[in-house]
Amino acid sequence: MPERKNGFFVQFDPRELLPLGALLAVLLLHIRVPASPEYTVKQLPYFTNFLYLLLAFFVAWIAAGLFKTALGGKLKFKSGFYGVGFLLLGVYDLITIKLNLVPQIYFPAPERIIGVFVKDSFFILRCLVYSLRLLLSGFFLGAVLGVATGTLIGWSQRFNYWIMPFIRIVGPIPSTAWIPIALVIFLKPANASVFLIALGVWFPTTVLTSSGIMNVRKTYFEVASTLGAGTLRNVLTIALPAAAPNVFAGLFNGTSACFLTLMAAEMIGCKFGIGWYINWQREVLSYANVYAALIVLAVTFSFLIGLQFKIRNRVLSWQKGTIRW
Question: Is residue 215 in a domain?
Answer without folding.
Answer: yes
